[in-house]
Amino acid sequence: MMVIIVISSLLILLALGTPVAFSLAISALLGIVYVGGIEASVAVSDIIWGTVSEFVLVAIPLFVLMSEIINSSGVGKDLFRSVDKWFCRLPGGIAISAIVAGAIFGAVSGTAVGVAAVIGSVAIPEMMKRNYSGEMSSGTVAASSGLGMVIPPSLPLIMYGVVTETSIADLFSGALVPGIVIVLMMCGYVIFVSMKERKFHGDVKVELHENLSFVRSLLLAGPVIFLIIVVIGSIYNGVATPTEAAAIGVFGALVISALKGSLSVQTFSQALVKSTKTNCMLLAILAFAMVFSYALSNAQVPQHVAEMVISAELNKWTFFIIVMVMLFFLGMLLDAISLVIIAIPIIFPAMIAYGFDPIWLGVVVMVNMCFAVITPPVGLCLYVVRDSVVGLTLAQVIRGTIPFIVLYAVAIAVLSVFPSLTAIY
User: Fold this and answer.
1) Does residue 154 sit in the same domain as residue 89?
2) Cα(267)–Cα(102) distance, rounded to whole angstroms?
3) 316: domain range?
4) Where would I find the TRAP C4-dicarboxylate transport system permease DctM subunit domain in this sequence (predicted)?
5) What is the C-alpha end-to-end distance of the chain, expressed in Å?
């Protein structure tokens, strides 16, 4: 009965448009009071304090601040112009540039919607100018905007590490190669389509970068790429913890913004305000999600799910496919971070009981989360990309993302066949 109360109240509150954090808090409190009476609710404050006081969570506000500083610096458009200079001669060169720029900018901006807005505003008009269809242009940008959830440092990946008590440094290390593989898969698809349709789009003289030398393109893109290498490299080599690496990232973002001439008291204060709002939202969701998990744990829901699945004698890969399909459809209704925080504590014990590696599982879940930003009705990147060009319809954007949704599914299959891609070296 308690489980029915908790789950049904959560679904009703979400359907009514109640913020995720409050939906989790109310439904969890109802379950706790139902089982232990009003006295049991005293545990809520201890759970919240125990969650938000963890040192590892300091990395979240720092990475968010880094992303806001990068976003306010306007480096995204320069990054795209630079990358397009490198790939413009290849078949589908500008689409490849959008994918690579989206992956790089997503790694430092931390928000798929921000990537879709910044890269989409400059890439899609230029792609359509070079005779790309609306579907291909919008689909490429929308799909690549989610790559930042896989390529570290990734906020959803940090959340996964917190709720499953998995090493964030190991998750970052395990996600790097799969992220690069997905980028290469997307680029390969673009090259294949361009060659098949004999649309090479490899214009040497294009307005976008006709006055941009190769050296200048390196100077524009180099600092951002170097910042990613320093942040991830310091974690990978054990020089810094994720929290310390996040602090390095903030300092690097300030330096990049200052060198670009976009750092001022006003822009920095705006970045602080925006990051504070985002952090309050993220930490509230995380804290109340832990209360929600406590309520479910009191009812032994994760244990019952694991026992039920094992007693059903399902093949481990059958169960894996069921979980992936379930996450795919839930991603149509919830954003990636909320989905990770709500669903993973329930399914994680069963997945571990089946012998799945927590690092590998975290990476695969992040690839699945990429669906969430490009599937209606909640796929925000679809709407952001649609609004980036006058005359572009939502139907065109959705059609354009379908091949990339298939590619993400193929990526999950590849990681399942070759789990060593997530190995920690």
Assistant:
1) yes
2) 23
3) 54-263+299-422
4) 9-420
5) 47
Is the domain of 45 the same as that of 121? no
* Token code pair at residue 406: 């298939």
pLDDT, residue 363, reads: 93
What integer pLDDT is reported at residue 357 of this predicted model? 92
Question: Where is average pLDDT lowest: 47-51, 123-127, 207-211?
Answer: 207-211
Q: Which amino acid, 130? A: R
- The DSSP string of 50-83 is HHHT-GGGGHHHHHHHHHHHHHHHTHHHHHHHHH
Which residues, at least 6 apart from 364, have a Cβ–Cβ distance to it below 8 Å? 324, 412, 415, 416
CA distance readout (Å), 372 to 119, 152, 325, 375, 380: 19, 18, 12, 6, 9
Neighbours of 113 (CB within 10 A): 17
Q: Tell me the pLDDT band of 365, cut-offs 50, 70 and 90.
A: very high
Query: In this structure, is residue 269 part of a structural domain?
Result: no
Alpha-carbon span 122 to 98, nearest angstrom: 9
Q: What is the tally of structural domains in the chain?
A: 2
Question: Residue 163, exposed/middle/buried by CB under 10 A (0-12, 13-18, 19+)?
Answer: buried
* Structure-model confidence comparison of residues 131 and 183, the more confident one: 183
CB 73 within 8 A of CB 263: yes
* Burial call 241-262: b when 16+ CB within 10 Å, e when fewer: bbbbbbbbbbebbbebbeeeee
